[in-house]
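User: Design a sequence. Structure:
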């Protein structure tokens, strides 16, 4: 499974999920531009993120790959899945979108402008609030500590560039008919991407005549950072989705 992280995090955001799903599933992740080890390499377009993800996909095993994207990573994953469907049908077995916006928004460019004006440090507190809520953001548990450290390690150009790139995302109306079986997941207490914000993704599938190709799961809790908590509810939904669309090798008796 190839996993693409959120703005402000890095490849380690899937460590808890990797451990929770166990050795039966191999989760591959990487630092996207402007994040982690790529902090000095900011993106200037959403297409650059998709190009990088395509290179990561090429390095995965030859068989079908399950693709997962969290927040901005979902937009990148969806565009990669649509692109791959045109050139290599069947290469991507499933798509999972966790707390991911249905399209780019003006608010994303406004966040980028604020970062350019005031720096990353000024953005940490409001970002933590959107991710964990007021009480959760004040905690120093492992998920919060990790998220806070990755945010503080970012540079303004990379953080702002990521928001500007996400603002370019055109949505699902033109790609829903190209996507593999897709699972949308969000949490009831997600302040950044609540359930109603992901509903247009489902509607795009319906308009494309592919209502049977999309499912929607709402977690009871986890906020915007559900992958960091890897709750049993999330892991269970992922396992069901992956197994339902995994070709099992035939056995001879």
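Assistant: Done.
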């Amino acid at each position: 499974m190839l996993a693409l992280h959120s703005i402000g995090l890095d490849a380690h955001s899937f460590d808890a999920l990797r451990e929770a799903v166990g050795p039966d599933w191999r989760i591959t992740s990487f630092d996207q531009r402007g994040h982690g080890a790529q902090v000095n390499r900011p993106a200037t377009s959403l297409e650059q993120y998709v190009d990088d993800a395509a290179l990561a996909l090429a390095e995965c095993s030859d068989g079908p790959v399950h693709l997962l994207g969290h927040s901005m990573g979902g937009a990148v994953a969806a565009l990669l899945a649509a692109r791959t469907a045109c050139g290599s049908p069947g290469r991507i077995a499933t798509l999972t979108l966790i707390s991911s916006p249905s399209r780019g928004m003006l608010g994303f460019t406004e966040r980028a402008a604020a970062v350019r004006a005031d720096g990353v440090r000024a953005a940490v507190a409001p970002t933590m609030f959107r991710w964990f809520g007021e009480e959760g953001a004040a905690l120093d548990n492992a998920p919060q500590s990790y998220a806070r450290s990755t945010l503080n390690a970012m540079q303004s150009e990379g953080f702002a560039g990521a928001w500007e790139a996400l603002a370019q995302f055109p949505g699902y109306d033109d790609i829903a008919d190209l996507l593999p079986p897709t699972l949308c997941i969000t949490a009831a207490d997600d302040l950044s991407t609540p359930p109603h914000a992901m509903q247009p993704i489902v509607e795009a599938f319906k308009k494309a005549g592919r209502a049977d190709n999309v499912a929607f799961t709402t977690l009871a809790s986890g906020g915007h950072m559900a992958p960091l908590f890897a709750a049993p509810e999330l892991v269970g939904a992922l396992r069901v989705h992956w197994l339902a669309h995994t070709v099992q090798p035939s056995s001879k008796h």
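Strands lie at 2-4, 28-29, 65-70, 92-98, 182-187, 214-219. The longest strand covers residues 92-98.
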